[in-house]
Amino acid sequence: MYRNIEEITRAAGKIVLQAHHIEDSVEIKTSACDLVTAYDTAVQEFLYRELSLAYPEFGFYGEENEHCETQGRKGWFIVDPIDGTANFIRRLHHSCISVGLLLDGKMEYGAVYNPYYDEMFTAQRGKGAFLNGQRIHVTDVPMNESLLLFGSAIYYRETIPATLRFVQELFPRALDFRRGGSAALDLCYLAAGRADVYFECCIRPWDYAAGSLIVQEAGGIVTALDGTPLRFYDRCSVAAGNPKNYAELMDVSKKIADEPDMKGRIR
Ligand code: IPD
Ligand code: CA
Ligand code: CA
């Protein structure tokens, strides 16, 4: 079953690779920084069709049009058809297709595929995490040797001060920062040991569903920024690290959360 989900996700990658005249298909969703292309919609439609056909027992929760068929289901797919749409539009080749399966409230399976590099990250609960079939692990470096990835929660402008506080507080403690533009790939890069921490103040389940399981199965720790479990039904912050640097990430988060102007903002 899981090999088939992987194959469906890989097949969706062809739509991304064959995209042309992308700029002509761009539409604004909620604001100038919230864009969608005809390809985001086409990938979601493809995944919905293929996954519903193969697994009619599972529901579907996808980003585009907030497509949600979850009522009365034991499990459902959580799908970001293109994570890193801004990169896709600018041909930065750092975008992916993210498919997760939530079963009884827990992530059971995740596949994140970057078609440009033909990199398929996968994990099944309790079975480890893989990149193109090879086992991957998080690093074990402390914060002062850590490369940090973060997202700027671009659709939630009210999170800007908190995001900047995290950068300010973590910058002197860590090795350096990178900002890739795809939360799902950020999580997979952490899982593969290409980076050591990832955080973002407010994102949606399709951004982190598959990637969070891949991090956990690679030996990492993923929670919301306040240390509580991730929520897969609503927006949430994300804090992810390896077992050596996660505690310091939490210390920083707590310190920021206790600041008077941050009260109630770190969740
Ligand atoms: C976005 C990317 C980005 C993150 C945003 C996400 P999209 O997803 O993952 O890195 O900072 O919060 O919404 O819009 O490209 O699918
Ligand atoms: Ca996304
Ligand atoms: Ca998307």
Tell me the series of helices and strands, N- to C-terminal. Answer: HEEHEEEHEEEEEEHEHEHEEH
Task: Find the CATH topology of the largest domain.
Answer: Fructose-1,6-Bisphosphatase, Chain A, domain 1
Ligands, deduplicated: D-MYO-inositol-1-phosphate, calcium ion
Strand content: 25-35%
| End-to-end C-alpha gap | 35 Å
What report would you give on this structure?
The chain is of the alpha+beta class and 267 residues long. The chain folds into two domains: 3-135, Fructose-1,6-Bisphosphatase, subunit A, domain 1 (Fructose-1,6-Bisphosphatase, Chain A, domain 1), CATH 3.30.540; 143-262, D-Maltodextrin-Binding Protein, domain 2, CATH 3.40.190. The protein is 31% helix and 26% strand. The protein is built from seven helices and 15 strands. It has an eight-stranded mixed β-sheet with strand order 4-3-5-6-7-8-9-10, with helices on both faces. A hairpin with a 2-residue loop joins β6 (96-103) and β7 (106-114). The radius of gyration is 17 Å and the shape is globular. The structure holds D-MYO-inositol-1-phosphate and calcium ion (2 copies). One calcium ion (CA) binds at residues 40, 63, 80, 82-83, 85.
